[in-house]
Specification:
The complex is a heterodimer of chains A (395) and B (378). With 395 residues, chain A is of the alpha+beta class. Helix content of chain A is 46%, strand content 15%. In chain A, strand 2 and strand 3 form a beta hairpin. In chain A, helix 5 packs across helix 7, helix 10 runs antiparallel to helix 11 and helix 10 runs antiparallel to helix 12. Chain B is of the alpha+beta class and 378 residues long. Chain B contains twelve helices and ten strands. In chain B, the strands form three sheets. In chain B, strands 1-4-5-8 form a four-stranded mixed β-sheet, covered by helices on one side. In chain B, a hairpin with a 2-residue loop joins strand 4 and strand 5. In chain B, 54% of the residues are buried. The C terminus of chain B is likely disordered. Classes of the chains: A alpha+beta (395), B alpha+beta (378). Chains A and B meet through helix 8, helix 9, helix 10 and helix 12 of A and helix 7, strand 10, helix 8, helix 9 and helix 11 of B.
Chain lengths: 395, 378
């Protein structure tokens, strides 16, 4: 056990710090609160800049424009990005999930065609996985693809698609064989979102915004050469994409949470409670201390997980505790903020009395989604129960 | 950066697990817990032969010279086996206090025999007000003798000497000396016995000041959290095994999500406590600036998790979990003892608050209303 960074890790970090000092845009704060439709060109430009410095996809192999970074270096990358509050990259799904899947499963022609434009943010990618009747039970999805000559004809609906509104391409999971067990008849298609018959509708969520879309496919023709991996092996391809979802990206979470709790502690110092600052109220102190301790434990868990994955070579099912831990912690944290802020906590962005421009009311509502997106807490507990503890499958 | 165990750390942990499983199976723990002291001379001598009694102490004192991470691993394994007897009291508690406060001569006199397995000891801290802050201690030495009462002293019944924390110093009292009365307290954990220590004009040898106790207390606190992790792991293992084999409605109960998800939470709590404990061990070893905070985080989390893992384990066992013959309650009892020793979660949350929240501009303001900077150590 040695929690100090190695020479190699330090030089990676210092190179990145030097690059960020010279290249980080100074005006992100003016853009960050604008609607994403408005700021999207800004995020594309930022990704291109990162690509020029070879920082857009550090985990990718060198021959594809990455740095073949170790997991620990990737973690350092996301920590540093969070430390300087860098803008997100426009093509985050393409870089984080879909690019690596194409590198792993794609043909040479597919790699050549798609990878450079993922890196340069010329083509934005979205993911067509969940359906109205296939959420946690993803393998039960029904979107149908029928081979007609050298095209698949696709019909059906997808839901919860991030970046659908701006997506040029979609990693789409479809059913190509309904005569076999449900996860055996799936295939992954790479679909041009401008194909005739594709309709994208915004999905309004409980926060009032639309981060996600619904996708409707009516007789959409997809060239057979756009199958990713093998026909009817889509389950393995999709699962591999989902594995990347639990990758190094989480390394930035503890810094983000820390920034929030630091702000909440500041607020506790100026919020009166029983005639004294709330920061001196024993109950509030207990709750803030619990939360800040759990933020640290989240980081310790993460560091241990990275070391374990580095040793084993692949992420294991233990990663599920990370997902449960951060999402449930975030909800508890937002509730503490609500308790502290009292009636002010409910005020929305735009209200002149809102604290921190309505950030806390937004956070309270948005975090309800945390225990649902990227695998519900219930699914994560099933994964731990069955794959880690060896209990019999419950479903 | 590498947050996994090194090869030698894995080796130590494995061999400790095998040693405790072989020498201290559940039947042996149950036999010893029914005795007055939960101490067995043969087990103690095997344990000291392994070098465990000198694990973190310098080789010139007969110790092994390993670090605090290794101590956490050893305590985790001792906790998994529910090791009865005075290991924590002698090695972790008395040993760390001696190392922190005693002169070289007194280390030779008191710590070296502990390392060699020749002496058993404990530390008397708490008084009737049950405060862990040395500032709240009333007992003080006058003319070289101590008069007063200490409570909740672990394993005093088998100690060759007792380190007494007094208001004006740290003292060694020989357990055979005049004016010393040691009486058992009857408490939940049957595997680590508690005693009252009454002192009446008892001769005491001063070995140091209370100023340097903080580090020793931090090591002992982290070690208790490590021991809790071992207990949680064992409770989880026993419970998962039961959930796989116990059938109701024609199915193993572990198939039901209401049961399975509780097991998943036990796993999450155990692993999270383990992460916090390993980090605390490392921070102590490196004298990292956040070591005190890290220790409190570990003890806070493990104190609560030790109890909830036990709650879940008993519940999943159903009626069996409520019986005397099932081992889960033995771990549950130990967890309660360890939870309160060196401060429960509430205590450590307040300590974290004073270390983390009361920084910067607010510190001065809090100081005005008399809030101690660190309630654990002044």
């Amino acid at each position: 056990m040695d929690l100090n960074l190695t020479e190699e890790e330090l030089s990676f970090r210092d190179e990145l710090r030097t690059w960020l000092a010279a290249n980080l845009p100074k005006d992100w704060n003016e853009w960050r609160e604008k609607p994403i439709e408005e700021s999207f060109p800004y995020l594309r430009a930022w990704q291109r800049k990162l690509q020029e410095g070879c920082w857009a996809a550090v985990s990718w192999p060198k021959e594809f424009g990455g740095r073949s970074a170790t997991l620990m270096q990737q973690a350092i990358f996301w920590e540093e990005m969070a430390r300087v509050e860098a803008p997100p990259m426009a093509n985050s799904l393409g870089l984080g999930l879909i690019g690596p899947t194409i590198i792993a499963y794609g043909t040479e022609a597919q790699k050549l065609r798609f990878i450079p434009k993922i890196l340069s943010a010329e083509e934005i990618w979205c993911q067509g996985f969940s359906e109205p009747n296939a959420g946690s039970d993803l393998a039960g999805l029904q979107m149908e693809a029928v081979l007609d000559g050298n095209h698949y004809i696709v019909n059906g609906q997808k839901v919860w698609t991030s970046y659908g509104w701006v997506g040029n391409w979609c990693e789409l999971v479809v059913r190509t064989d309904s005569s076999v067990a449900k996860h055996k008849g799936l295939t992954v298609l790479l679909v041009d979102m401008k194909s005739p018959g594709v309709e994208v509708r915004p999905l309004r969520q409980m926060t009032g915004e639309s981060e996600f879309n619904e996708l409707f496919f009516r007789d959409v023709r997809v060239p057979a050469e756009n199958v990713l991996g093998k026909v009817n092996d889509g389950w393995n391809v999709a699962v591999s994409t989902l594995m990347y979802e639990r990758g190094s990206y989480g390394a930035r979470l503890h810094l983000i949470f820390k920034r929030y709790i630091t702000r909440l502690i500041e607020l506790a110092r100026i919020t009166p409670r029983n005639g004294r600052p709330a920061a001196e109220d024993p109950l509030i102190r207990q709750k803030l201390a619990q939360c800040s301790a759990e933020i640290e434990i989240m980081r310790f868990n993460q560091m241990r997980a990275f070391s374990r994955i580095t040793a084993a070579g692949v992420p294991g099912p233990e990663g599920s505790i990370q997902k449960i831990f951060w999402s449930e912690l975030n909800q508890r944290f937002q509730q503490i903020a609500q308790e502290l802020l009292g009636p002010y906590g409910q005020l929305l962005a735009g209200d002149p009395h809102a604290i921190d421009k309505g950030m806390w009311s937004y956070g309270y509502l948005r975090t309800r989604g945390n225990t649902i997106e990227a695998g519900t807490s219930e699914v994560q507990r099933n994964i731990i129960g069955h794959f880690v503890l060896g209990l019999p499958r419950s479903y | 950066m590498q947050f996994g165990l090194s090869e030698s750390q894995e080796f130590l942990k494995d061999s400790a697990r095998k040693f405790f499983a072989g020498e201290c199976p559940s039947a042996e723990t149950r036999r010893l817990m029914e005795t007055d002291t939960a101490y067995d001379a043969a087990l103690w001598s095997k344990l000291t032969d392994q070098g465990y009694s000198g694990i973190i102490f310098p080789e010139e004192l007969g110790g092994v010279g390993l670090g605090n991470v290794e101590l956490m691993l050893l305590m985790e394994e001792a906790g998994r086996a529910l090791l009865p007897g005075p290991f924590f009291s002698t090695v972790v508690l008395a040993g760390s206090v001696l190392e922190a406060v005693a002169s070289a001569a007194n280390k030779n006199k008191y710590l070296a025999p502990i390392c060699r397995g020749e002496a058993r000891a404990t530390v008397a801290i708490l008084e009737a007000n049950t405060s862990w802050n040395p500032r709240d201690i009333h007992l003080s030495v006058t003319n070289g003798t101590l008069t007063g009462e200490k409570l909740f002293v672990t394993d005093a019944g088998v100690a060759d000497f007792i380190i007494v924390i007094a208001r004006n110093g740290v003292f060694v009292v020989d357990s055979k000396t005049r004016g010393l009365k040691i009486s058992p307290m009857s408490s939940m954990d049957l595997t680590r016995k508690l005693y009252t220590v009454e002192l009446a004009d008892t001769p005491a040898e001063e070995i140091g000041t209370t100023a340097n106790l903080a580090r020793a207390f931090d090591i002992a606190t982290a070690a208790l959290a490590a021991e809790l992790v071992g207990g949680m792991q064992r409770t989880l293992d026993i419970t998962v095994e039961y959930a796989k084999t116990r059938k109701q409605f024609g199915k193993p109960i572990g198939m039901f999500q209401a049961v399975q998800h509780q097991c998943a939470d036990m796993y999450l709590e155990t692993e999270s406590a383990r992460s916090a404990v390993y980090y605390a061990g490392w921070a102590l070893e490196e004298n990292s600036p956040d070591a005190a905070t890290a220790v409190s985080i570990a003890k806070m989390y493990a104190s609560d998790a030790g109890r909830t893992v036990g709650n879940r384990g008993i519940q999943i066992h159903g009626g069996m979990g409520f019986t005397w013959e099932n081992d889960v309650h033995l771990y549950y009892r130990r967890a309660k003892g360890s939870e309160t020793t060196f401060g429960d979660a509430t205590f450590h949350r307040e300590r974290i608050a004073s270390l983390v929240i009361d920084s910067g501009s607010v510190t001065a303001k809090s100081a005005q209303i008399g809030r101690p900077k660190d309630p654990f150590h002044e």
